[in-house]
Amino acid sequence: MLLRIDPTSAEPLFAQLAAQVRTSVARGDVTPGTRLPAARDLAAALDINLHTVLRAYQELRDEGLIELRRGRGAVVSEHAALDYAPLRAALAEVVRTSRTLGLAPETTTALLKDALSEETR
Amino acid sequence: MTTPPTPTVPHRTASTLLALVLPVVLTVATVVVALSWRDDLPDPVATHWGADGPNGSGSLDGFVWSSAVAAVLLAVAGWALAFFAGRAATTRRLGAGFSLGFAGFLSTLVLGTLALQRGVDDWTAAPSVDGVVLLTLLAGLVLAGLGAALSPGDAPEPTSAPVPVDAARLPLAPDERAGWVQHISSRGVLVVAAVVLVPILLVAVLVRTPAVVVPAVLVVALLVASMASFTVTVDARGLTARSGLGWPRQHVPLDEVVRAQVVHVRPFQEFGGWGYRIGRGGRVGIVVRTGEGLLVERTGGRSLVVTVDDAATAAALLNTLADRSRVA
Q1: CA of A1, closest CA in chain B: separation in Å?
Q2: Fewer CB within 10 Å: N-end or C-end of chain A?
Q3: What is the value of pTM for the model shown?
C-alpha cells in the first residue's frame, strides 16, 4: 500500500495518513480483510514517529474502519465496505452543479463542510 | 539507447578458493585418511544402514571414491555458479556454501561411517550410525554457513546515471515523502512443506529413528518458515524485502537502482521453484508464487525479483525516488 505525507502541509501528519486510508477504502482500492502496513514499518518508511502512525490507526479504529489486533496488526474491517456508489453519484451532482454556477472549489468545500457540521449539531 | 557492457563477475579468486580449492582439498584428505584405515576395516565395509543396523555393504574403494567423485562434481557445480554468475554476493555465497557444505557432509559421512567399523571383523557387526548421521548434517550445515560467511560481500556501487526516461514514474511533489509497504505470504510454500514434512515425521516415528530425522525436519521447517512470508518496502532508503523471521533479507539502496519494472514471474522456469532463490544468470529471487513481480535492475549487472502484488506502484515509486537521489 502506497502512503504519502507532505511535512510542509498545514494538515497534521496523522490526519494525512488517516485520510489516505479512508479514501483507499472508499474507492475500493483496499478491501476488507486487507492488512495495513505494520505501524513500525510504515513509520520507518516515511521517517516519522511511530506514535504518529499509531494515532492515525487509532483514529481509523475509532471510526470502525479498521480493527487493531494484537499480533496481526491493523486489518480493514468487514463492515468497512459500505456501498459508496450513491454517495459518489451525489458528489458528482454537487461537482456538476457548482461548475454550472461557476463556484470556486474552496466555496463548494466550505459549503459542504458547513452542511456536515449542521448535521452533527 | 545502448545498454552498458555487462561488468565482469567480481571476487573470482575468493570464489575459486572457497567453492573449488577448499572442497577438493577436503575431499582428497578424506580419501587419503579413509584408505589408510584399510587394514583395520572389514572387507567389504558396511555402506548402508536401516532401522535395525547395517543392511548393505560394498568395497572400501567403491565407497570412498564414489563419494569423492560426487563431492568434486557438486563442488564444480557450486564453483561454476559463483564464478560465472556470481555478480551478487547472494549468488557467490550460495555457490560457496553449496560446494563446501556438500564436501563437509560427504567427508563426514565417509570418515564417520568408516571410523565406526575400525577393528570390526564383519560389516554386519557395525554399530548404529545415528550419531554419525547427526554429525554429517551438522558438518554440512556448519561448512555451508562458513562458505557463505567467508564469501566476500558486495562493495557499494553507487551510480549517478539517470533512471531511463521510459521507466514508469509516480507523481510526487518536491516536499512529499512516500512509502510503499506490502506483505507477501505463500500458502503454496507452506502446503508443500506440510506435504513433504508430515510423512517424513510419521515414518520417523514408525521406524523409531526420531533422533536422526527430527533435527533434519526442524532444519527444513525453519528454512521453509523463513521463506513463507516477506514484507517488501520501497521508501527513501530504497527497496527492502525482509522475511517474517528477519532472514533472508535483500536490500537495494536507491543509488544502486538502475531501473525498476513489473514482470511476470514463472517460478519453475526462471528459478527452479519457490522460495529465496538464484535464477538464470545469477538473478536473485524472492519468489513465492507465479505472476506479478517487481524486477529491480541494479548496478554491477545484478538484478533482484520479488513476487509481490501492486508491483507497478512499487516500480514507479522506486524509479521516482531513485531519480530524486541522483539530483541530490
Answers
A1: 5
A2: C
A3: 0.81
